[in-house]
Design a protein that fits this description.
It contains two helices and 30 strands. The chain has a domain at 116-134 and 176-459: YVTN repeat-like/Quinoprotein amine dehydrogenase (Methylamine Dehydrogenase, Chain H). The protein is mostly beta strands. Helices cover 4% and strands 38% of the residues. The chain is globular, with a radius of gyration of 22 Å. Mean pLDDT is 75; it is low at 5-83, 89-128 and 131-140. It has a four-stranded antiparallel beta sheet, with no helix packed on it. The chain has a four-stranded antiparallel beta sheet with strand order 4-5-6-7, with no helix packed on it.
Length: 464
């Protein structure tokens, strides 16, 4: 083995070792996350609390719904006005100026400001979304192309970014390679020390959180379209089927009742929803029966005229987005479609609930914020126009409990902004479009891009 090969081996081992001492597996009780487990990355400051505490194991822990599920998969809606988007009080007029600074450049030209400089301001105290727009960030952070190639000779003196992010406290700690095509979902189920990932390359990979090694590669003999976890259950969307796997009991189920490739899934009000390429939404209800924990309930047909691409649950509503450019609003109690939102001009790519608002992103290059008008109809109160298509939205709370939103763009950048002010904090960078972002415990994030790379990030608590 030559010296270059030895060096490459040492570097790869160092990346994998970031997984050591991260999780402990207790087979008798639900896992508890210790503040000392950080994927080998030292936190810059102490955490006041976990950035994204995992949701309570509501729908399937006891195989029966214990009440309305009032949490979204990302940020949680506040309990006012029946957990509906708030009425428009005309204080949140549409902001037409774009969110600049979304471009991703790899350059050898000096950047004007340091990548990790202080933010311009903290979260606005006003409740209006984007009610004040202070314009574009002062510079666009650039990743050093020599650093990316592993041969920058300037080291710390280099005037360009030697990092995959420009947000203070956000560090990329590991890259898990093996998938050959874009990732369709990343899941970390409760009670397991294994990370699951599914790709359109037709494989499901299972990664050991202690070593970072891929311990199982399952040939699905079909293209995976979606992957989520809820409690101890992992759900995998396939053509004409959904697979359900319990990491505690190893129970493996094949859920029938699907017509078409499953591209999106979510859980709400004790039910599992699967959106397909045909535009239908299949629904299963959790039961108390050990031998048959999921019962096929119905299929919601004739509403979307194209592939269902995304879901989010907020309050007692389910929201579904589609390639038909619409968002459908469903009553979780009656499973009736109560509203159709038509303001986007291209495929809906992602949905997010925060506070009293619904966020939607699209290939049309916009992020729209919706709120209830006086007559109870959802209307756009703010449109953020981007320079390119938007592929994923994700929301969490930082170490101070302040909400921030991740927005993934076509060119591989992910903009990280405060809510509700939309002040940009920083960016994440990738060589390919990031199509999925999953929140983990203790400030962990998992991102998957179109090339098949799965990256593990650590977001330490920062002070405003």
């Amino acid at each position: 083995m030559d010296e270059a090969t030895k060096l490459e081996s040492v570097v790869q081992s160092a990346k994998v070792s970031c997984f050591l001492n991260v999780y402990s597996m207790n087979h008798k009780a639900l896992r508890r996350y210790s503040n000392g487990r950080t994927f080998g990355v030292e936190r810059q400051q102490d955490f006041a609390a976990d950035i994204a505490p995992r949701r309570p194991y509501v729908p399937y822990e006891n195989r029966v719904n214990k009440g309305p599920n009032k949490r979204s998969r990302n940020l949680v809606w506040t309990a006012s006005e029946g957990n509906r988007p708030r009425k428009n009080d005309n204080t949140n007029e549409s902001v037409k100026s774009p969110v600049s600074g979304t471009g991703h450049c790899v350059s050898n030209q000096p950047r004007k400001n340091g990548a990790n400089g202080p933010r311009s301001s903290s979260v606005s105290g006003t409740r209006g979304l984007g009610s004040r727009d202070n314009g574009s960030p002062k510079s666009r952070d650039c990743v050093c192309k020599y650093w990316k190639a592993g041969n920058c000779k300037n080291g710390e003196l280099c005037q360009f970014l030697h990092s995959w992010s420009s947000l203070p406290g956000l560090v990329m700690v590991a890259t898990l390679e093996g998938h050959k095509k874009d990732l369709k979902g990343i899941a970390l189920p409760v009670g397991s020390d294994k990370l699951f990932s599914a790709s359109s390359d037709g494989t499901l990979r299972i990664w050991d959180c202690h070593t970072g090694q891929c311990v199982h590669t399952i040939n699905l003999q079909a293209e995976a379209g979606s992957l989520i976890s809820e409690g101890r259950w992992v759900f995998l969307g396939l053509p004409n089927a959904v697979k359900a796997f319990n990491v505690q009991t190893s129970k493996d189920l094949h859920l029938n009742g699907v017509v078409g490739q499953v591209h999106a899934m979510t859980v709400g009000n004790g039910m599992l929803f699967a959106g397909t390429s045909s535009g239908s939404i299949s629904v299963w209800k959790a039961t108390e029966t050990e031998s048959d924990p999921f019962t096929y309930l119905t299929s919601l047909e004739g509403h979307h005229s194209g592939q269902v691409t995304c879901f989010i649950v907020g309050g007692q509503r389910l929201y579904s987005g589609s390639v038909d450019k619409t968002i459908k609003v469903w009553d979780l109690n009656t499973l009736q479609c109560t509203m159709t939102l038509r303001q986007h001009s291209d495929t809906i790519t992602s949905l997010l609930c925060w506070d009293q608002y619904l966020f939607s992103s699209s290939l049309d290059g916009t992020i729209k914020i919706w709120a209830c008008s006086d007559n109870g109809i959802l209307k756009v109160t703010n449109t953020r126009r981007q320079e390119q298509s938007v592929h994923a939205l994700c929301g969490i709370n930082d170490g101070d409990g302040k909400p921030i939103m991740f927005s993934s763009y076509q060119n591989g950048t992910v903009s990280i902004v405060d809510l509700p002010s939309f002040e940009e904090r920083g960016k994440m960078f990738s060589t390919h479009t990031i199509g999925t972002i999953t929140i983990g415990p203790e400030g962990l994030l998992f991102s998957g891009d179109k090339s098949g790379k799965l990256r593990v990030w650590n977001l330490a608590g920062t002070k405003a």
